[in-house]
Amino acid sequence: MNDQAIERLMELANSDPWLTHRGRFLHVSLMLEVGDEQYLIGIREGSVESVERGPFVMPRWTFALRASSKDWSTFWSESPPPGYHDLVAMMKFKRLRLEGDPYPFMTHIRYFKDLLGRLREGATA
User: Fold this and answer.
1) How far apart are CA 70 and CA 1, in angstroms?
2) Torsion region of 58: left, alpha or beta (phi above 0 gives left; psi -120 to 50 gives alpha)
3) Secondary structure letter of residue 89 according to DSSP
4) Which end of the chain is more exposed for a tag (fewer CB within 10 A), N or C?
5) Diameter of the chain measured on Cα atoms
6) What does the alpha-carbon distance between residue 5 and residue 10 come to, in Å, rounded to a whole number?
């Protein structure tokens, strides 16, 4: 997984009308940490409005998803092994940390699974 793929998240997500529809009631700022790299992702009404690369000084976010670069790379592989195939599985095995307000993440979990799944190798937009 390279930085350009994450920075293409807006294009990948917004080109999927069903994904946008699924998140139509969602308005959040997501901090995505891939190892030492930080990305602030703005989502409004299911559309990814912005993807900013850090580092940030006192960023405002609704919730954060944090994992090592290696764990994210395994999750984003074309055919991830058990324990890496799903965001909840990664949390269960303590590979992924959810910080901040869990409510928007849990109520729109399918949206976030599909959104971050767009970054998988071989995923179609």
Assistant:
1) 9
2) left
3) H
4) C
5) 36
6) 10
Compute the distance between CA of residue 77 and CA of residue 30 in angstroms, rounded to an integer: 22
Q: What pLDDT, on the 0 to 100 scale, is given for residue 5?
A: 78
**Alpha carbons 65 and 47: distance in angstroms, whole number:** 19
User: Which residue shows structure tokens 């959810």?
Assistant: 98
Please, which residues have CB within 8 angstroms of residue 69's CB and are 6 or more apart in sequence?
1, 34, 35, 36, 37
Query: pLDDT tens digit string along 11-50?
Result: 999 999 999 999 999 999 999 999 999 999 999 999 999 9
pLDDT digits (tens, 9 = 90+) for 107-121: 999 999 999 999 886
Total-model pTM: 0.89
Domain boundaries, the chain: 3-117
Q: In this structure, what token pair is assigned to residue 10?
A: 């807006």
